Amino acid sequence: MKLPFRYEKLGYAALNVTSLERSVPFYRDLMGLDLVEQHDDVAYLRCSSDHHNLVLYRSDTPGLKRVANKMATPESLKAAYEFYLAEGLDPRWLGMDECAELRQGPTFRVREPQSGVMFECYERMTHLALPYVPTVTKIARIGHVVVGSPNYERAVHNLHTQFNFAISDFVEHKFSWMRCYPNPLHHTFAIGNSDRNHLHHVNFMVTDIDDIGKAINRLEKAGVKIVFGPGRHLPSTSIFLYFLDPDGMTMEFSFGMEELPEDSARLPRMLEMHPNTMDIWGSTPDERFGKTGLIEVHHV
Ligand SMILES: [Fe+2]
């Protein structure tokens, strides 16, 4: 099925955190994102020339506020809005004030009803004059957001047929890795079958295998809990490290990822549900891996 709009990339994730005073130093000093702006209730961080690739909102409850994808063209942005409207998904344009706060051009939001995830679509964001200069980690980009849902099968169907995510691989009835078409990265979003709608983790891709090794030592010295890895995922071939942010939400650094071409991409593989699918090196996740973080439902 060919949908009438194209994505460029995963632009940013917006998270709810209970304390900006704790979380900003964590994401800036331990993970290596650049703090662009901070106000009373919101902080904008980046790992590229974009004004933000991660936005932290002060909240009583930690979790996922929204996932924002950059569209390929202004025409794609408009076509996506019209498509969601016709599908009855009630997309909503943001007011000019909020677009200005976000340093974005015209922007709309639309919720995937089964997982509850609020997606945002925009086509331009302020490109900052000074480049992102890596500090403790050479972050290449925000890589992906992963959620869990008890409505897994219906959510995957919607994500594929309405949200234009191409499925790269899946574990039957359990997990699907998907890319915002035609972005070539193996996954920019993924969803697993779970007992409730929740955030699983947010990933940042690094440019150097040393960034994974250095992160292990730096995070352990700072008392940060590593909950899975280092290891290597079978589906994407990424080397990974998962750890907890100050609210207990799972973050990931990963190195390397398969890329699939726009045309003639290989078909998705149906992978076996096996510990080796998640880590061919054989490590075992901590019970807190991917558990903390609600999906916010009360916002437009
Ligand atoms: Fe991941």
CATH architecture of the largest domain: Roll
Give the termini separation.
28 Å
- Radius of gyration of CA atoms, rounded to a whole number: 18 Å
Spell out the CATH superfamily of the largest domain.
2,3-Dihydroxybiphenyl 1,2-Dioxygenase, domain 1
Series of secondary-structure elements, N-terminal to C-terminal? EHEEEEHEHEEEHEEEEHEEEEHE
Total strands: the figure is 18
- Number of domains as seen in the coordinates: 2
Structural class: alpha/beta
What percent strand?
Answer: 35-45%
Percentage of residues in helical conformation: 10-25%
Question: What is the CATH third-level topology name of the largest domain?
Answer: 2,3-Dihydroxybiphenyl 1,2-Dioxygenase, domain 1
The molecules bound to the chains, other than polymers, are:
fe (ii) ion
Largest sheet: 9 strands, mixed
Total count of helical runs of at least 4 residues:
6
CATH class of the largest domain reads Alpha Beta
Q: Could you tell me the mean pLDDT?
A: 96
Uncertain regions spanning at least 5 consecutive residues: none
